[in-house]
Amino acid sequence: MSVTRPALRRLRIALLVLALLVLLPVAAGAVLLSRFDANHYKPRIAAALERATGRAVALDGDIRVRLRPVPTLEINNASLANMPDGSRPEMVTVQRLAAEVAVLPLLHRRIEITRLVLVRPDILLETDAAGRPNWRFPKRGAGAPTVGVLPPSRVGPARLVIHAVQIEDGALTWRDGRTGATQVIGLSRLALSEANEQAPIVVSGNAVWRGSTIAVAGQGASLALLRDTDGTAPWPVQLSLAADGAEVKASGSITNPHRGGGYALKVEGTAPDLTKVASLIPEANLPALHDVAFTVQIAETGDGPPVPSAMVVRVGPSDLEKLVPGLKVSKLDV
Questions:
Q1: For 92-104, how does the pLDDT look when each residue is reduced to its tens digit (9 = 90+)?
Q2: Are 80 and 125 in contact (CB under 8 A)?
Q3: How far is CA 296 from CA 82, 252, 259, 288, 310, in A?
Q4: Predicted structure pTM score
């Protein structure tokens, strides 16, 4: 089969026209986005977030849109209000937030964030005196603030989906409203991701606790379970913590997750030298044991303190002279 030169010329012209038809809208969109001033829509963005969370949202810094390497919305100096009667006004403050947005789902009113990066977030998780958690947000239409910036939508609200969250140089504070006890954990680097809303959320990264860096890895409840604040389905838990040569693994479930109780966990741990991790739990006054390995089942039913069972402890050669004069252990199995 032979192709004449006029036919080749017509084919090239057709391909050029097709390329222009495809590229012109993209180029025009890029030009419009490059000149787009996102700060003009700051009240609308805050209003949408307030309707979604039922909490006040403050956007005190600039908002920018970047096109490369992927379309990204950047927000600086943002905060989310705490629950009423919380220990401080804000539940979350963040120095910079960057959301990488998928373009095609926007055509179907679906805001799909492929990755959300939080730089220097300060996150407070707490309960009040009655045990109610601040991460339980008001349901839509029940207690959510009325915002008059946006006109009523005629096509329904857009659906927001976040596939991955990355935290850099952050801090997480846990406060028990019943006892007033407060613990602060540094989040030097932490990543959370999920394949879909029904899949478990996978966690990995490093945290700082009492001056020691702890490697964190595991997975927990799916996004669907997290959203179901009235649900009774147990949350699966798999978590691994490693620091200073020691490692602790927990697996099981939490049957009353919104109260933080009803858990049934198998906990396994190993430590070549307990003295190296003593700073993590100074209240335990750990002895100078070596080559420690343990397994224990822990259950909490709400009727009393947690109940340990099926405990196995093994200890290698250890010098306990400081604990009991003249005491040395060659091997111990309990």
A1: 999 999 998 887 7
A2: no
A3: 37, 12, 23, 21, 6
A4: 0.72
